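Section 4.2 – Deliverable D4.2 (structural model, holo form)

The reporting period included a commitment to supply a predicted holo structure for the target in complex with S-adenosylmethionine. Inputs used:
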Amino acid sequence: MITAERFETYCETIYPAEAGLLAELEGYAAENDVPIIRPAARRYLRWLLRTIRPKSILELGTAIGFSAILMAEALPDAGIVTIENYEKRIPIARENISRAGVDGRITLLEGDAEDLLKQLNGGSQNYHVPKEGFDFVFIDAAKAQYERYLELLMPLIHPGTVLVCDNVLAQDSGSILDSHYAIERRDRTIHDRMRHFLKQVTADERYVTDLSMAGDGIFTITVM
Ligand SMILES: C[S@@+](CC[C@H](N)C(=O)[O-])C[C@H]1O[C@@H](n2cnc3c(N)ncnc32)[C@H](O)[C@@H]1O
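Output (structure tokens):
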């Protein structure tokens, strides 16, 4: 039986470790308890981005800029808009993005993802959505809101847009695979909402999807 842990250990032996600034940020994130994209999800994101080559990317959940920089480095022609609401992390992300030399291609919007998506839908003054909409979306913010995000994203994307939703299976107590009753009471709302999101979207003929257990669970959606 292949376990996820054994698989990850093997992958570490064949894929190079992060280098340069990303290696530094990985260390900072570990020391300061900043949740960043796991190695399995990084491999997937790099492969997918270089395969489909989106020109415009929207990210929900910047943290300290690790995944935004990773995406910018994977695609030297892409423009990225990234959203973060945690005030303490925003200046750190800005500094990291500038140090990576990709500040000309990454726009960091400050505030709640839901509010900012509404603003983008209404024609925000701060940022102009590409005319045809975003080609790629990385959803990595508030887990209880993924279904709401997708709803608000609909006018901002187009047929062929690919959305990658990270961390869809893991929870502080247990996992989305466990029954509602096995989850601690405080985590049940997120559990129920995530399950509802996965069920709704997989059954919706407007999308084609894939649910993978890589990392903490990656759900990929292509708009038909
Ligand atoms: C898992 S981290 C993002 C990690 C980042 N994508 C990376 O891999 O480097 C999630 C981030 O989403 C932010 N976040 C959570 N809820 C949010 C919201 N409602 N609006 C904007 N950002 C939010 C958190 O502050 C946190 O920094």
